[in-house]
């Protein structure tokens, strides 16, 4: 019945700030922007921003059940991390080897404190 995820919706507290982050810092292609809803093209899945209430004070150490975290694949995690830091992105986890998963993983947060991971698949 369900085969692909067409879009992911992220609730944001300030549309203009979040659009700037996802467009300028992450380099995603903006499809359209409005005060209550904006969309980015991310391959076969659309990332939608929806205006919501105030953000939480701090991203939790361990995510609560029923929440989600965005994740992107990158070819060179060290270069991606450096580029994002130059654009003002705050990392909560530097690139770290995850040997059992065959990846290097880093985590940063969006303007509302939502964790976003980037991963590089390691060659065997």
Structural notes for this entry:
There is one protein chain. With 124 residues, the protein is α/β, with parallel strands linked by helices. The protein folds into two domains: 1-53, 2,3-Dihydroxybiphenyl 1,2-Dioxygenase, domain 1; 69-124, 2,3-Dihydroxybiphenyl 1,2-Dioxygenase, domain 1, CATH 3.10.180.10. Helix content is 17%, strand content 40%. The chain has two helices and eight strands. It has helices spanning 15-25, 77-86, and strands at residues 7-12, 29-33, 37-42, 45-51, 70-73, 91-98, 103-109, 115-121. Strands 1-4-3-2 form a four-stranded mixed sheet, with helices on one face. A hairpin with a 3-residue loop joins strand 2 and strand 3. The radius of gyration is 15 Å and the shape is globular. The chain starts with 6 loop residues before the first strand and ends with a strand. 20% of the residues are buried. The mean pLDDT is 88.
């Amino acid at each position: 019945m369900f085969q692909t995820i067409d879009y992911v919706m992220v609730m944001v507290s300030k549309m203009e700030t979040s659009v700037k982050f996802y467009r300028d810092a992450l380099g995603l292609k903006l499809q359209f922007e409005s005060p209550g809803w904006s969309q980015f093209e991310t391959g076969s899945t659309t990332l939608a921003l929806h205006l919501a209430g105030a953000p939480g004070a701090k991203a939790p150490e361990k995510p609560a059940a029923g929440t989600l975290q965005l994740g992107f694949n990158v070819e060179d995690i060290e270069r991606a991390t450096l580029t994002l830091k130059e654009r003002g992105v705050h990392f909560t986890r530097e690139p770290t080897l995850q040997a059992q998963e065959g990846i290097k993983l880093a985590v940063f947060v969006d303007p509302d404190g939502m964790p976003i991971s980037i991963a590089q698949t390691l060659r065997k």
